Input
Amino acid sequence: MRFSLFVHMERWDSSVTHRQLFENLTELALMAEAGGFSTVWIGEHHAMEYTISPSPMPLLAYLAGQTTTIRLGAGTIIAPFWNPIRAAGECALLDVISNGRMEVGMARGAYQIEFDRMVPGLSAADGGKYLRELVPAVRRLWQGDYAHDGEIWQFPTSTSVPKPVQKPTPPMWIAARDPDSHDFAVAQGCNVMVTPLMKGDDEVVDLKRKFDAAVDNHPEVPRPELMVLRHTHVHAPEDPDGWRPAAAAISKFYRTFDAWFGNKSTPVDGFLEPSPESKFAGRPEFELESLRQTAMIGTPAQIIERLRFYGDLGVDEFSFWCDNSLPHEEKRKSLELFIKEVVPAFQ
Output
């Protein structure tokens, strides 16, 4: 099982500049490369300070010039916000810039608050049909001339300019949760990325079961790969309460996610206050002891034990999700511990 880094610039107030956040992200990505991580993943989000990435492409193109081995993943671009020709061309250009290190994940999108601003009138629940049309169109454009007459997009004969370095195409990933999403991804020959969010490792087992069912449904397709994405924080064994600040920070992250996802308030200059803790009374998954068990929080030995379970389950890639509302210094120390104490156990 290999490791990757899932990272964004995240800003919780105006005390930290966007330039500083950019430098912080760069430091973590370079640490990940030096520590043997396979990929750095950066997604797409709009007009929200707590997840800053209006496009992963410029960040990844910059990192391409700062690195030599780590792969550069757009994880994920939001299908309804991209024309297939633009998606194919921008991804291929990143592949050229990085000399064949680009990977792209695609998703249907989740936040209605983004849809209301990017594609007014479209429900986020309808994003799946855009995803199902975008994926095969991008692949065809990478391979040569292609005209498209779909339900959503129509265009005459076109092609991706430039063409990607990787042949026949760069790796494509689909963010999947329900069985239909897994089945679509596998049928298209795409790798699958999943996140159990606030659920325990039983959810990882269930997501792997859905993936395996999709693989069994498509024996004509070589088995794709499966990535699990988890909020991760490693603390020193000599600090037995080191898990507590991480659990509290991840709780704040999810309560902020809830505020954005709920789409009940108007953001102020890109900020929304986290939903109040009182809203989640009776919701055990938000309690710190629960998050200690569900998020990948623990000492190096505890993390190794859980990751070995993932590896035995058949997970191909574990992505260290470091968006968690903690200060950069805490993220850096956690990643250092993971690289020093956890990664060697899997080499």
